[in-house]
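Q: Structure for this?
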Amino acid sequence: MLMLANKLTIDELASRIPDGAKVALPPDYAYCSLTAVRALIRRKVKGLHLVGVPSLGFQADMLIGAGCVDTLETAAVTLSEFGLAPRFTAAVKRAEINMMDATCPAIHAALQASEKGIPFIPLRGLIGSDILAHRKDWKVGDNPFAENDPVVYLPALKPDVALIHAPIGDKYGNVWVGVRREQMLMAHAASETFVTVEEIVDGNLMDDLKMKAATIPGLYISGITEAKKGAWPLGIPGGYNADHEHLQRYVDLAKTDEGFEQYLKEFVLETPAEAAE
Amino acid sequence: MLMLANKLTIDELASRIPDGAKVALPPDYAYCSLTAVRALIRRKVKGLHLVGVPSLGFQADMLIGAGCVDTLETAAVTLSEFGLAPRFTAAVKRAEINMMDATCPAIHAALQASEKGIPFIPLRGLIGSDILAHRKDWKVGDNPFAENDPVVYLPALKPDVALIHAPIGDKYGNVWVGVRREQMLMAHAASETFVTVEEIVDGNLMDDLKMKAATIPGLYISGITEAKKGAWPLGIPGGYNADHEHLQRYVDLAKTDEGFEQYLKEFVLETPAEAAE
Amino acid sequence: MKDVVLEEILIEAIAENLDGLRHVAVGASSPIPGAAALLARSRSKGKMRVSILGSEDNNFFSDGGKEIFDVAGQGRMDAFFLSGAQIDGKANVNLVSVGDYEQPKARFPGSFGSGYLYFVVPRVILFRLEHTPRTLVEKVDFISAPGFSDDNVYRPGGPHKLITDRCLFAVDKERKCFRLESVHPGHTVDEIHEQTGFKFDLPEGTVPETRIPNSETLHVIRGEVASEISEIYPAFAARVFGIGNES
Amino acid sequence: MKDVVLEEILIEAIAENLDGLRHVAVGASSPIPGAAALLARSRSKGKMRVSILGSEDNNFFSDGGKEIFDVAGQGRMDAFFLSGAQIDGKANVNLVSVGDYEQPKARFPGSFGSGYLYFVVPRVILFRLEHTPRTLVEKVDFISAPGFSDDNVYRPGGPHKLITDRCLFAVDKERKCFRLESVHPGHTVDEIHEQTGFKFDLPEGTVPETRIPNSETLHVIRGEVASEISEIYPAFAARVFGIGNES
């Protein structure tokens, strides 16, 4: 008598992520739910605080372009081989978003602090950097076990929502993420986790010891949506490849405000039924 | 052109763990290398500082009985359904070992500090306990992000050696541990990790995404020994069961000094060639 | 219907204290708390998760030994059970030793997760089947986990009830002590006083008798709960419910 | 034998600085450092591990995004490569922005792991193929990671060399600055002075020319290294070595 997962449509999922939420997102090379991002843009979500774990890509660029984002907390925003993220770059130059620049291990460590229920975690490095100089929420303190040994104290970073994609889930809300364990860390650290999966399989992923070791337990999952090719136009490791032609088209269009609006219209706003495909 | 693992005989493995080493061991319900413990007793290792991750069982009781242990740092020593650990209990009553009582999450957290290369980690709880009162190496300090909020600071716990068993390894030293990820934490945190495995398989465990997610990379492994039934008389999850009859016999014999000597003679000292079985 | 046994009374008494919770965790070797959690889960109509620890098969965790403590630290564990070689009137728990710590008269396995979970799990239910002056003492010899903390100590969790083979105590968080809540059938308040090493409060009026599970509850306990618990604790299920095979 | 190209000179120059190391990590989109690491690994006769990050297939980590940083923090990563939109004469690296941070003239992706790895990896090799006063500046506009730290700051790592398309600089940890080590064939010291925005030291005597790989090294680079790197960076391998298919 296991608890069944809370199965949602993609629009229900988007409606459960409130305006102003602190939302953790994975990098492009992990499992990104672009289908959920499109649903969020359609529902005109506002004021998001995005947390890159540890960096952001297409998801953030689209949400920024669509005016959904107030704050970015991330080690980078990159479209990798496609170059600079155009909507991100434009928004920063116009001072339209609040930047909280970080370094990758600081994001991982601060999420681990939330995962462990500890109020802060120390981290080496950072001292003397302008990353630290601009992060008024971080502190430099003493290592209590040594003399004259300053160390950075990071407060626990607790996202309201972790939003991820994964290859498989089951009807109990268990979600297999393979080696992309930062997605498991995100689920542990966040108050709620919403997930889209390529496929909801029969049976219980926890019953197979090989699958269980890389499966997020349903305990952490607030809602799950089946979404075939839910990462498109990104790919998923071990699954399908990224749609390079489409991504290049995005980058070309998103260079201008008008081009981005055209992209949104064509690929986001006029496909409200994509989850039912 | 991957690096090949350092394949050792069981006696070579034991010789690589020096007297006085701080050795991390898993609990009985994980993957314990009893074959390595027997080899350590045969080589008359002295002065070990055992770290239970987070508790200890038969391995520790045998090593204590054989006079190999100076210090125990653990949340518990238990033989579960077989009751109190007789050699442990006798040694503590005679004040023959230095006890560093802990609580489970403190051991995990302090190992995670070593894993992360941070000098310490805070932990909730413990304040007002006699565990804390007796741990002169732990401190109570302030949470720098709040007023009047004391929190325990644990120094990083870095074992010299993690000694584990596992169902499978490969010739590159990659070791699959399944859901027993505390064994992965031990390998990350320790300076060196020695492992015995039921079987060294062909191919590379990292090439299979399902196996990779629960595999310790060879980077961390200093030496690997193939040892069929290397956990005996304990069992391994998903493999063989514990030998209850033998364990009961151990517990009965180990109640007295003489009985324990008899056990050692019969099952440890006179089977030097067990790795070659 | 066969007579109600003490274990069934305890299962019902514990289950009442788990009503409405989302996640109840049970430690290893705890068949009565385990059965109570399963009864509460059955009543929750799918709203409660139960995890049984120290067993490879009956838990749903996948991030190693630390996860259960992380889960508790995140506030995702609503209830847990603790026992103690000694428990005192301030709800302090001792799982370590009797006598001098450095050279004790008796040594037990150790504190396990108590020094942490007692602080962060909102409802910790203390459970001790041997109710004597030897186990329920005025002051424990070693505090594995303190019952109460100073106001400035982070303490979202703590003791909720103390259940023994003779009675049920409630916890008075204001006065930081136990109050007798009910006495199990066949036992008396005088006997409780005699067998308890610490002072405790009494309720106003007469002390009630611990409720006997009604027939509907007994049906669930002896049916689905007994069946599920027999997979985890076959010897217990065989002895108490007469089902399954001893192993 | 076909003419030696700049990439091959850089690969050899970097590989020399990796000799004897146990574990060299290479970031994403770094074909020349990647090839250099593979050359060094080939020479190590199985004593060196190389991990290529940001690629699912070419790394051996299994504990999520944090592991590579944990590995570095444990002291298990001996060398890493960093680039920068700007690098200054104090070896400070800027991966963030040019102009005012709040409203910049140019914004780059961000600092990634530089603010940490630069502190803990013993040999960080700075690598910038555009050697101009625009990139090698007197003072960076934003310090993603500082080149040097005060004595009381934990700093087992730091800059080891700076390699550009024109020359190779060594790092003087005492004087906290760069010293010109060699100039690549076809370039001059005067040109380096002209194209570098920061002051740097000169070696005693004449500045040597960066060594051209010998025929044995070229054989390895164009053989096994080219073949391995083409799996990771097919376009690079096709352009430089004329092997594999562009993708």
